[in-house]
Amino acid sequence: MTQSKLYNIAVVGATGAVGQKMLETLEDRDFPVNELKLLSSSRSAGKKQMFKGTEYTLEEATPESFENIDIALFSAGGSVSKKLAPEAVKRGALVIDNTSAYRMDEKVPLVVPEVNEEDIQNHNGIIANPNCSTIQMVAALEPIKTHLGLNRVIVSTYQAVSGAGNEAADELRDQSQAFLNGEEMQANILPVGGDKKHYPIAFNALPQIDVFQENGYTFEEMKMINETKKIMHAPSLQVSATCVRLPFFTSHAESVYVEVDKAGVTVEELKSLIGEADGVVLEDDPSTQTYPTPLSSAGKREVFVGRIRKDLDQENGFHLWVVSDNLLKGAAWNSVQIAERVIARQWL
Length: 348
Ligand code: L14
What we know:
The chain has 348 residues and is α/β, with parallel strands linked by helices. It has two domains: 138 residues, Rossmann fold, CATH 3.40.50; 193 residues, Dihydrodipicolinate Reductase, domain 2 (2-Layer Sandwich). It has nine helices and 14 strands. β7, α3 and β8 form a beta-alpha-beta unit. α1 packs across α9 and α4 packs parallel to α6. The longest helix has 17 residues. It is globular and about 60 Å long. The model has no long low-confidence stretch (mean pLDDT 97). Bound molecules: trans-cyclohexane-1,4-dicarboxylic acid (L14).
């Protein structure tokens, strides 16, 4: 960014999987940082962290931490956001919250810049960053909805362990090691740290991400359903989701089925729309086995789409394969991108 004014930035949850990516992204984007404050739980306070060649010491996050902060990036869990985001706002900071605490709050914009950047201007101090699986899906769906009309979405996800934090990634590593050594796998974290039962993720697939709701869907599935309608301003869009955890570290993949309004749409038309969309890269050529995978998309900021096909029975139905780095576009990059747009549009 070419920018003369500099901003005081706080990162809450700086030691976490997303917090670390937020710092990397601020650095990669050459974000106009004046002062940087790295905040954490009391447990991590005192730890050291490098940013742009300078060593920072983590401080325990308290209400007073936000004095003089312009933008606070939160990713330390919903309970921390519920407690401290209002304190940050009270002290004049803009909060960009990467937890599910405020996403469905009517007073809080839920933003993917490629889809609904304009919603940012209605903020009351907090802007919510959507769920990782939702973000990459709506980025791919937006051009379809805009140009062809969209009435139905059915998605199945293939999600990386890093979404559940560094502990879940360590668990996959330890279980894989144990399995290959012929030892018993220990399961203490996945599918959900705080839930009653745990199952191995290594060499397995777990059809539970986040806790179960009364209707039989998991919270991750309901987040995808509700957030998609809110971000796309499409309350009557039919959306259903099945969210599954697989044993790889980075990037979520999604098999997405859509039904469009327009009749007679061709695969070529859909490919060219996706290929031209902001923040989306088309990687789709069966003749050269070209399609995105979790490994090929890891470390990149874009959303990658391939395997675009027409349904064989439903005239207006199409299938797509959507892959993106869950910690970048799914979390850290989308948050920093929101901050960049706030500055560019002077919505602070
Ligand atoms: O809603 O366990 O931001 O992979 C996204 C990652 C919830 C947990 C969210 C996971 C989180 C989810």
